[in-house]
Amino acid sequence: MPSFDVVKTSTAEKTFRVSSVIGAFDLASEKITEHFVGSIDIDEKEWNIGLIVGGSGTGKSCIAKELFGKNYINGYEYKSASVIDDMPAGKEAKEIMHAFTSVGFGSPPSWLKPYSVLSNGEKMRCDLARAMLEERQVFVFDEFTSVVNRSVAQTGSLAIQKAVRKTGKKFVAVSCHADVVEWLMPDWIYNTDESKFFFANNGKNQELHWNCLSQTMKKKKYGECLGVITI
Fold first, then answer.
1. Which ranges constitute the DSSP H helices of the chain?
2. What is the pTM of this model?
3. How many Cβ atoms from other residues are within 10 Å of residue 84's Cβ?
4. How many beta carbons lie within 10 A of that of residue 1, not counting itself?
5. Number of H helices, E strands in the chain
6. Domains contained in the chain, CATH given
7. Per-residue confidence of the chain (231 residues) as pLDDT tens digits?
């Protein structure tokens, strides 16, 4: 059973303002320590889509990095004048075009543009297509749908989960948005707000996935960021 035990520590310079905060909020010192511990029961289980979801500061990124290591993706570097030439070497144009289309990045003129001029929604889909074209069976995306509007988030989630299941690869989304659940239809969810793991193994059963989330998270179904928990 994959488990994690992450300690995250930061120490602020003890300036006048820092000392003012420590005094005003009765903090122990300028040293801040956060501890995230738990496990996800996915050993020997069939799955394609996973979701780590919760509020800012609840350890989502730390947990994802600890559990999935080199498969953790937080953006790519793009250098070419057209994004199609930034895709992995050795892939034929036809295969790349299929990957673009499969994740909802279906505008041929946009394939010939540099990444910097694409819309946020196109950038998200381009990143996902690139990950799918790489020689890796598992890929983990941080800040999933965080910079796109909720309509794009929903249609993008639906497209990516269909594409991943067709390839047989494994995709883990890391997000502060609970509204993607109904569209991404993950096989498992880890809720960092409550340190709870849920395995459905049924990507078509939206009700099961939605019911595993807390009432607090359900209230955020339209894509607002979840509440912050200070540890």
1. 16-24, 60-68, 93-102, 108-111, 120-133, 150-167, 181-184, 206-211, 215-218
2. 0.82
3. 19
4. 9
5. 9, 8
6. 40-218 (3.40.50.300)
7. 678 888 888 899 989 999 999 899 888 888 888 788 888 888 878 899 999 999 888 999 999 999 998 899 978 999 999 999 999 999 999 999 999 999 999 999 999 999 999 999 999 999 999 999 998 899 999 989 988 888 888 888 999 999 999 999 999 999 998 888 888 999 999 999 888 888 876 555 555 555 666 555 655 543 443 333 333
